Amino acid sequence: MIFRWLVPRKIVSPLHRAFCRFYTTDGERTIEQILRDRFKTARLIHVADVSGGCGAMYQIEVECDEFRNMSVLAQHRAVKQVLKDQIKEMHGLTISTKA
Description:
Blueprint: H1 2-6, H2 9-20, H3 26-38, E1 44-49, E2 57-63, H4 72-82, H5 84-87, E3 92-98
Parallel strand pairs: 2-3
Antiparallel strand pairs: 1-2
């Protein structure tokens, strides 16, 4: 790709990430749908592929009333239990939950 040759790598990567914010990957849609199916009363479910679109790392935010009397650890375990098959294919995962 000529663009990569003309622009230093440390500039291309942030540009690529900036443009990737405007579309949703298949992995993001799949994970979001799985979470919506499980946490039907969730006020917020946000899934972001933070690996530049390759699906190796995700950042997940879930706000749900089901988490009200649960510790943060229990909330994260609930999310990870739902995504156990998808997590096997990931390199990293950041989870943020709120009741």
